[in-house]
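Your task:
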Amino acid sequence: MSGHSKWAQIKHKKGVADQRRGMLFTKLGNAITVAARQGGGDPDLNFTLRLAIEKARAANMPKENIERAIKRGTGELAGESLEEVTYEGFGPDKVAFIIKCLTDNKNRTVNEIKYILEKNGGSLAGPGSVMWMFKNLAVLTINKEQPLINKNIDELELELIDLGVEDVKNNNQEIVVYTKPEDLKKVKEDLENKGVKIESAEIKFVPREKIETSNEVREKLKKLFEELDGHQDVSSYYTNLA
């Protein structure tokens, strides 16, 4: 029986992993669809679409899924009409949240996000209640374990300053670059032309100040994060948790 039990556990874990992967691909596909609808289906001419495709490829999303998502955005394939919506709220201990969603039913989504927050000790807030605590910035991450970077970190930082970036943080494993959203394309392409491999590049809400909280609150927040990750409409979310 123990062998059967172990097999059942393996199947269950695989089922959970497949479900999470399917959810991730749905979210990535929705982002590609919206980008293609707003700026056209050619990633060479639509930088937002190019970023969405790069993110999907990094998650090993199949090529045919990406192509279908683009065609839904350009109208070549039928699909739901998705809208981008942003909600502001608080988690337990007044941890601030900005939650971005892609939805075909705003009334359903706002009620479900409100329920998730309240269920986990938080609340939905009105527009502007949280947004002022964050800056909207383009964030690029660069793995330091690259031959070009490893020996020339100081030189790279000087080049980034010359490009006019907002901030550069040199962490243990990576360099994180912060710049204005409108400068993302220029900075990314300049680095790539120099042979620097970019791990990720996206526009995020970065907290102006981070807050500390107790381990007990962190456990509650962990459950809240899991529910947001598991919600089909949530494309991304940001907090000011340290």
User: Anything to note?
Assistant: The chain has a mean pLDDT of 88.
